[in-house]
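Students often ask what a 'structure token' actually looks like in practice. Rather than answer in the abstract, let us consider NADP-dependent glyceraldehyde-3-phosphate dehydrogenase, a protein of 539 residues. Its sequence is given first.
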Amino acid sequence: MDRLLDSLFPTANEIPEAYRLGEPLVQREYLVNGQLQQWDGPLATVRSPVWLKEGNEERQVTLGNTPLLDADTALTALDAAVHAYDKGRGAWPTMRVAERIQHVETFLGKMREQREAVVKLLMWEIGKNLKDSEKEFDRTCDYIVDTIGALKELDRRSSRFELEQDTLGQIRRAPLGVALCMGPYNYPLNETFTTLIPALIMGNTVVFKPAKFGVLLIRPLLEAFRDSFPAGVINVIYGRGRETVSALMASGKIDVFAFIGTNKAASDLKKLHPRPHRLRAALGLDAKNPGIVLPEVDLDNAVNEAVTGALSFNGQRCTALKILFVHEDVVASFLDKFQRKLAALKPGMPWEPGVALTPLPEAGKIDYLNGLVADAVDKGAKVINEGGGASRGSFFYPALLYPVNAQMRVYHEEQFGPLVPVVPYRDLQTVIDYVLDSDFGQQLSIFGSNSAEVGMLVDTFANQVGRINLNAQCQRGPDTYPFNGRKNSAEGTLSVHDALRVFSIRTLVATRFQESNKQLISDIIRNRESSFLTTDYIF
Ligand code: G3H
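Now compare that with the structural description of the same chain:
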């Protein structure tokens, strides 16, 4: 392990030319009211999870800077969004759907031009490997394409009139107002855009604040935002959430709060809003998804899924398997196979071919993970894989912890990192109680082949989590499926289709079905005197 760690971080010269960064990126721009503004105030330093060898030392790379806006400046972005929405009368919220779609298509075209720059920054800022960084970018573009398709479909269905009990009506979805969109550092592009794009395309105006890491990678998209949307429709701010976002929420002018992060931060921010009933929230929060391995099981499949489920992107996924309950009859074999699979995962820098384990972006994370391991070991667990828990700089080699029990912190806390706690069980009720009593309810995985047992567990857990995965790891995709959670894990449901609904409200124009009203509506449609009341069919 020492040898591996000694050769983990490269020298600057060892980085392939295509992935070098050059000069530090000093960003002073932020986007307000259709203009890239220059910030003259203090800047935040952006550090990479990547360290480089310099002589006998290893040093963390400094990538550049981003603006540390103050509350007043953040409020200018909010004012721009409020003005562009203009109480629902602005050009954007009243624009015909087909035209709004054209703006989003323009943005998508410009965004695609920035693929290389964004992918490179994903690797440098959050340590995501090249393959997954490319996947994040492409998946986001696909999400935008699918969102456009879903809106066209929705609009086609709304373009007709309905007649119920002598009442003629047309129902369309209308925007809600000003949306505040904030994403997480593990998917700083994809997860943020899964709220940002639906919010925009439904006619809301937006203030967007990038995640705590993965901030510079939004910079190449600022011009695309500026040039694709009318002024004030999308505003991008930077700075400490405590200062900027708190001021936005306390203003009472945010109508939709789209946030991916901890339930504590979400609750604190929601409480600041003076009119809670006027705030709609779309939240993706904490999770502690269990993987449950039954005694009758295809163990090779269970291990394969558990390894990727627990360790892809070093376990930094809200959907990661964060605790494994394995039946005593198969636990020895499970651990043996798991260790072998884990040992085959390649540690290295994000751009190295085939690399699976990479450095972590959060300062203090290694200490936190060491603390969880020490606590578990203190209470009787062992790190059973060779080199497990070894660390260097920002890198932490995954630790397979066994046997874990309810006294240990890792049994309860969301580690969000490369720690794999395994709990042996004989009585399935222990596992059921864990799920029932958990504060979280995002997803779980059941690995087994006994239909009676799996069927019983499906029924037991259907009212506990948002998704039950059979013989498969937990995951968000495909993005057309609902993604949500119960308890402290989420508020609202996102999917390509659902997100359009989250960021809009059904609005009905209704009239008594009589000659004069039929004539009136026909005239409005024929003369194109309304953008709302129309039978236009979007192709
Ligand atoms: O971090 C949470 C993400 O939504 C997980 O998405 O399951 O596709 O990795 P994923």
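One point worth highlighting: Residues 130-158 form the longest helix (29 residues). Ask yourself how you might have guessed this from the sequence alone, and why that guess would often be unreliable.
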